[in-house]
Amino acid sequence: MTWKPHVTVAAVIEHSGCFLCVEETIEGQSRLNQPAGHLEPGESLTDAVIREVREETTRGFTPEALVGVYLWRAGPQHPTFLRVTFTGCVDESDPALQTDAEIDANVWLSPDAIRTRRREWRSPLVMQCIDDYLAGQRYPLSLLRSLVEKTP
Length: 152
Prior knowledge:
By secondary structure, the protein is of the alpha+beta class. It contains three helices and eight strands, in the order βββββαβββαα.
């Protein structure tokens, strides 16, 4: 069996001390996450996070820095995820767009409010990425290089 980690991207977006989160329904349960999703064929990591933020929040996203790269697995029988987390700024929501079907709402929450909803976190990466952001962890986007041809 070939081991293949799932490559995902996420965006930590802060405004006035609150973070943009998505409330989503996964397998019938309410979950809290940052705007995030899987890398698609032919995408760069920055293209993927821009797309995911737009799909889940209807907002344009401008990546400004990397917060971190995280490896996570819920347990031995679960898939492994390699998450690349960005930070940046968003535009206003575009009323002409609709969020992905699994997104129930976009909410701005304080770090304390996110901590109190721990049971709803999609994964421990939700708070870890915010804590790293709050600690000032930032890396230049120039660390990323994509040698993959874009898919038309």
